[in-house]
Amino acid sequence: MYPDKFQYFTPGDIASLEELLDKYRDDSKILAGGQSIIPLLKMRFTSIPNIIDISNIKGLNFIELNDDLEIGPMARTAEVAASNIVAMNCPLLFDAAGKVADPQVRNMGTVGGDICEADPRNDMPAVMLALNADFEITNSSGKRTVNSTEFFKDAYTTALDSNDILTKISIKNIGYHGKYFKFTTMASDFALFAVAINMKLNSDETVKDIGIGLTNVSSTAVKANEVEAYLKGKKIDEKISEEAFSKLLNMIELDDDYNGTKEEKQKILKKIFVNGLKEVYGDSK
Amino acid sequence: MMVNIRVNGKQYKKDIEPRLLLVNFLRDELNLTGTHIGCDTSNCGACTVLMDGKSVKSCTVLAMQANNHEITTIEHEDPELNAIKDAYVEEQGLQCGFCTPGMIMETFYLLKDAGNKDVDDDYIKKKLSGNLCRCTGYRSIIDSIKKANEKIREKEEIHVSR
Amino acid sequence: MNKKEILANGMGRYIDDIKLPGMLYMNIYRSPYAHAKIKNIKGGLNSSEFKSYYKSSVGEMAELSGNKEDKTKFLEPSLAIDEVKYYGQPIAAVFSENRYESEDLLNSINVDFEPMESTCSIDAALGKKDISKYTMAKYELGKKFDEKAVDHDIVLEDTFFNERVIGNSIETRGCIADYKDGMLTFYVSTQSVHSVKGGLMNTLNLDKDHVRVIQADTGGAFGSKGGFYPEYLIAAYASMKYKKPVKWIETRSEYLSAAYAGRGVKSYAKIYAKNNGKITGLEAKIYVDAGAYDAGAGGFSSYFIGFQVTGPYRIENVYIESSSIITNKSPVGPYRGAGRPEASFIMERMMDLLADKLNKDPADLRLLNASDEPFTSPTGEKIEEPTRPFFKKALDEFDYYNVSKNNKTGISFFVLIPASRPGDSARIQVKNGRVNVFLGGDTHGQGHEFFARNIINEMLGVDRELVTLENGDTSLLDMGVGAWGSRSAIAGGSALAVVCEKIRDQVIQKYGVYNTDNLLNGEYDASEFYKIDFDVYSLNANMVTSYVKDGKAMIKDWHSYYDLGKVLDKSNVIGQIEGGALQGIGQVLSESLRYSDDGQLIISSIEEAGLLNAENIPENFHIKWSEGSSKVPSHAKGLGESPTIGTPSALVRSIELSTNKRIRETPIKPDYFY
Predict the structure, then answer these.
(1) Do A3 and B67 touch (CB under 8 A)?
(2) Which residues on chain A are in Cβ contact (under 8 Å) with B56?
(3) Domains of chain A (ranges, CATH numbers)
């Protein structure tokens, strides 16, 4: 099981990277850690004539707290999962990064790659949606910022154009409580589905702000807008959670497959969702 | 394309196809056949090696990605790595031996990465989630890792007291 | 360095570690359909050139069943001829000196398929009008009985299903064929060089002096490398054709689609019982999802399951109808347990059902139905020792009555039927002060070297470090069977013990007296095929406690009490038990080979196949055994498969006590806990 032939580039700076992307456009793909792309190449699900490895470009691997929490596209998942800055300011991301795949894959893989690959089973898209993260995107014509809610279009499809580079992940909603509830089958590291919750309370214990993202409940990660709107201003209890879940059901598409029927999956998801809300709400008090 | 990869302390310069996987570079180009391929899909961890001291799955890393990096494999001569190998043999942490090099390399990493954390069952089980063994049922592997930890710590203490 | 040290240092020599000059890498183009006509093939080596059928010979098979049916009806071609009958069936082969380019060449093959209707499950086949068309083999065991003639108060029925699972050794299958000057040297990852040699000779019309099969270090097998495979033949043929060595190393997804899978058994059971719990009658229908060809064990395994379904219990009236059903799936073969776990699952599940119905303790019910004297079951299973005293002792060892008060506790009781027949061979060669041991069955991780060293040490007084167990090689030991079916310590160990006596005699003949120095200073060589034409059964029991947390079953304590006969190496026994236990747990919690209704294998990775990692092991193992007498020279009984037999039924019982939802299928689906 080996990849098809490709040309391989390691640009040393952003300008050279831009040049390569402008040249090869759709026939090229950026390689960060490669932990999502290389398996697809090996299975020959995809063939990419030009692979552009960005690991030699300086200044892309950072985890910094400025006004926002800022993460570079080459920050390894393991580094995020071990970062004190992330742990202190963004417990959701900290928790979720530690739950991606396994230690070896986290050592090589990047949060940025996880986002850009947009495999519906990847964990970071839902986390970014829950965090309302902004993505700085660079190409040869300049920089722009795209909010995560505008970013994930479909399975393996994002707002990135073929010559775009994700250069920074910015998270404004820091100082929240949060957790990533990942349901896997016994033997798997991939989420059967998962719920990312980021929450902040008012002093009266009503919800001031909440972000909810879901993994693998649709062709791409889902942000539960309506559920977030419903929960804002409320104190969360069992009844409210169940109502929230019924709203959530309108936003997702579960399918029958070998892990179970749609109904069976709904049953599990409900429990994960309701318990998750309760837990993060409890932590936030 | 030319790559420069330092493997087990020795520098190798080779002209390779860009699509060559690191595991095939090690096995076929350098004849270091201790690193194995078990699953192809970066699940089983039989191909685990260290890249700049961190464990990675060499079946899912391009040899080009290791260019100018340092790779450590099961063939490396290192007192701590040897202590781990001894512990696996003593505690029967291997049967068919096929997953073993990957297990040992991940052990090498997780013991270094533990810092001041207790290397207990819970810690080991979590850190071993990327390595599959079909023979042992893992109990003896976990015991091997604990024993390796003792061996390494003991040596450190001796070293410090001297 | 001993073997384990060699392996721990990454210095093993597995099949993909062997390189021969000029070697070609072979890749196989496989069927993407469960059933299709092949209208045309272009490219690669295909059946227009190499047309052959192969016979698989997994040693324990057929011997018992006496199945005289014409098996050639269901033979698999090495490369598909005009039709494919399962997803993953080999159609054509390509070759290159570069393994990446060999894979690229798969794109050069063009096949014109005409998809046909497929039958991909037991249920689908049973729904057909003419079931005989879908029957590979059919057996009746025991005796048909009239319900009225059976003394009973209640009748209970249930349906069970064990989904297909596969060995999933961490090393996949692989071989190297090297044909030179009329001689085929064949390196292979295997449980039996002799079964591979037989397969090559039969199909390629080579005589025994022109085939040598050498076992590479073998990275696990669990039954899936016991038999013969079409890919071996294709590689051998290609080596003869190209006059170059040909290596074949499969991918994991090929392994999942084409190596022999195990289980895949559906059953309907009906028991008749008295209100006191005594079972007076058992009827069962057993169906094996045998796959498209009778290549692994498909035709035989339905018989084997039916034969042993009553296990340690003495039931007067038994009638079993057992069938191997033809489906458009890969051939079913032996996977650790190979029929034994399926049989035990039926009986033990019915025991628990009866206990619930009568509100009795499941252990008491098992005791009641066990026997104080030897007996022969209506299916012909000869139980040569009383089963009740053993189970009583097991319950004591488990402290069952105390543990079960406070824990969700499942128990199981079963008879292990090792594949002791027809015995096996061994050779001892002494030279240069060292002892080399060869066994007819090939170790693939179970640690035969431990018992070999101990037997040599005990019988010939040789230091363990001076004893080496060599890999299988048909040129060094020309007769042999294989390592499967819990047989190695019984058959291989006994052959070795017999050869030790021969060596001893040789020394005595030379010196008049035996001592180790005389032995090691000289050169000696002896071999023997130790014939076994009887059974070496053993009684065994398991107990499992568990709890449910966050939608998952967590195993607290796993207990075993097995009769092992003489324990030849203690730590080796513990390793076998722990490893087997996790495979049994995997069958219940996660493992399966799942197909879509139209026969597409819908898993493509070892992860999706459900292999458990270290996070899923029992919190505690409590491993105990008795050393009952055994009639073979090694004094051993069987072990390898016991944990995979006893674990599933004990574990599902423990789990259903937490959830109050009866379990009839393995694996349990994720939503079961919600």
Answers:
(1) no
(2) 104, 107-108
(3) 7-53 (3.30.43.10), 63-171 (3.30.465.10), 177-284 (3.30.390.50)
